[in-house]
Structure formats: C-alpha cells, structure tokens
Amino acid sequence: MKGEFTVLIYFSVICPDEQDGKPPSGIQYYELRMKQKDEERCEDDDEDRCKIIEVQGLCAKEQDASHCRRTCGLCQHTTSTRQRCYFDPKLHGKWVLYDIDRIEDVTIERKRAVFSAFGQYYCRETGTNENQYKAVSIFTNGCAPRYTCFEFSRTNNNLLQYRASRSLRHDKEMEEICTFHEDPYPLLDTYRSSYFKNLILSGIKFLWPSYCGIDSTIPFNGTYYGEMCDGTISDWDEDTCTTKGTLTLQSRTCSPLTAPLELQCLAYIMHDTEELQQILITRSMDGKNEFNCWIIKSYIDGGKWPWRVMFKMPTTQCTPIPDTHMDVHRQPRAEFYLGDKDKSKLCKPAQNPDSVIPGVKVTIKPYVGEKEVSTFTKEDQDLELTNTDDFKHEPRSSKNGCHTSVDRSYQLLGIISLCWMGL
C-alpha cells in the first residue's frame, strides 16, 4: 500500500550487507511495518485500536489521542493550527549565527524560517505579543510534527535577535509553549536559551556602521587572551570632534594590541532585564572578520560611583557572565576595567568650535599661511570637559598690546592668538 514500508532494527552493531537486507542466521532483529503519515489529513494511525481507546475513555490522554485524531475528535483543532500566519517583513532576509560549535545560515521568509542546522519552521500562529510566533516543523520520515515558539527582536539593520522554546510534540496554547530556557546538559544553550541569540545580516557589504556607546577615549587595564594589558579603547574622532562607528583598541604592554585593532560597531543595546548592563556587537576590520559580543557591565561598590568592566565574548552570543563559569568554551576572552574618570575627548582646533571666543577671529598655527575659522555664538558651544585642570589659560603680553592665550590641551597642535581689537 502506498506510504507503507518496513524497518529492521538489529540487536547488534553489525548490520548485514545482503542485497535483500535480511540478516544472516543468528542475528536478532525487530521487523517493524511502518506507514508514512500525511500531516495534511486528519486520520487515525490504527482504526481498530483507536475504537478500543475511545471505549476505554483514553482519549483524554495526549499520548493516545495523538494517534487517534479522528476518533478522539481532534480534527477540528488540527485544522485551526494549519491557519497560516506570516513572519513580519522586518525579519525577512539572510542571516548568520556565529556560535562556539558552528556557523549557521538562517533564512527567514514570509511563511517559514530555515536554520541550516536547527531545521525548518513554518509559521502557524501569532499571539498577543507581536514578536512571538508559534511555528511547526513537519517531517516526511514518519515523525510527528513539533511545535516551537520563536521570539524575535529586530534591533537595527545589522542585527536580529531571537530565542526558541522547547519543541513539543503536542500543540499547546502560545502562553504555554512560549517559555524560554536552556536544554539539559550537554546541549545547554546550544540551540535554546533564556537569553536572546544574535543573528548578523549576511554579507559584509550590507553591514552599516553603528553607534559604539563609548563616546570618548577611555584608558583600561585588564587581560586580553590571557595577557596583562594597559591601553585605551576609543570611538572618538579627533578630526570631526564626534563619535564614529568604529572602535579602536591599542596597548603598549600586550602584543596582540601593539598595532591598533579596529572594530566595526554593528549594534549597541541597552539591556532590558539586566540593570547597569549593555551589549556591543562588533566585527574586526583586520581581514579576519571576527564577530564578537562585548558585555559592558557596571558595578556599584559601597554606594560609590559605578565602575565598568568590558567582557569580550568568544562569539556574537552574549552568554550571561554568571553562566560562563559552567562552560570553559564560553568564558570571556578579554576583561577590561575602564578608567572612566580619566576618559577624554580631544579635538583638533580647526574642527573645534568651542575654542573660539564669540566675535573674535582666530589664527591657528602651524599652517602654511593663515587660516580663518568661522566664529560661533555662545549658544553654539557645547564642550564637555572631563578634566578642567587640563584646560587652564595663562595670559601673556605681546608687543602689540594684545594677549596671547596658550591652551595647554593644544600645545602640540599650535598656539592660538587672540586679539581684542579696539581695547
């Protein structure tokens, strides 16, 4: 009959290689007569057996009712689960999951989400939470469908976050399916987790520079791949006097950072559930294209001003720091203690309007010839100084009676000559 086949299960690890598939004498085996199931049809697996189950009142048990859907009156319910839903267009695209044990391609289309290792999931239902979807995996090998809840969060152009629930054999309400936690050991958070996993948009040319969240140049000390390091981390551009979409790490005390390491910032996220914590997703620009998550965690000691630590995770997956102690492969590769009190924002004078006094033309040296810089009103000034001791001015007399002010923070860049005309 169409859809029927036979499976031989052997008690030995030695399988026969005869053409008819039959084992030689002396090898024990089970012979199972199987029938392929059509999930689009509501029918009983064994009509005679299902009649007995109905008489005995066993339809109330899920393990029996799932094999007797017609007899146990589940056909109408099954039809409702086949009602189509569609994944939000903002989720559509090709993505990449970077994790410890694999790099997995993910494609999300209108009707389905396809994970190259995790499987295919067809959208079946949406709930009150617009970011959650009940999806079903349908198999052609005789296995029953599995129902899984996915929750997505599209952070920006570069990043899509998701988490997956346990896959259940029996259909449940979304409130029951959509609970998120790790699998038992040894899988743990390989496929499912309580926290969101990060998917990176496929194709480097499609990635946009994003806010890094450092807003300055900050000294740090700590470890980088086991080496003790003192250095700086910066997303500050002295030429434009603004932040940029790349992060620069450099140090004179540890070999991996002797040459500055440039990182493209892909996403900066304020953590919703963890107070005083942010995450930063980066891509290395050294040709290796290494993708990582950085966890920026703040600590308050004795009610004092919080101090921050940056942890570089092995991949883009931001495993909670307490959980990394359970898996040596997920422990941070770097740990930087940030010296926020000594952070700085230096700007080149030609691009720094805050060094200009209203109504006064400024001549900046050294230049070939003289260069006039446009004046700004007081309202235009918005300079954030982190150490006012570095910005003291000492007036000196000049031959023409004007005053020359030396800005110590710009001694290497030139001397600013200010002349009040008519005084």
UniProtKB/TrEMBL annotation:
Protein name, entry field: ShKT domain-containing protein
Keyword Endoplasmic reticulum on entry: no
Domain ShKT: start-end pairs: 42-75
Top-rank taxon, per record: Eukaryota
Cysteines engaged in disulfide bonds, as pairs: 50-68, 59-72
InterPro entries: DUF7043 (IPR055471), ShKT_dom (IPR003582)
Keywords recorded for this protein, A-Z: Disulfide bond
Lineage of source species: Eukaryota, Metazoa, Spiralia, Lophotrochozoa, Mollusca
PROSITE patterns: SHKT (PS51670)
UniProt-listed Pfam families: DUF7043
Gene source species: Patella caerulea (Rayed Mediterranean limpet)
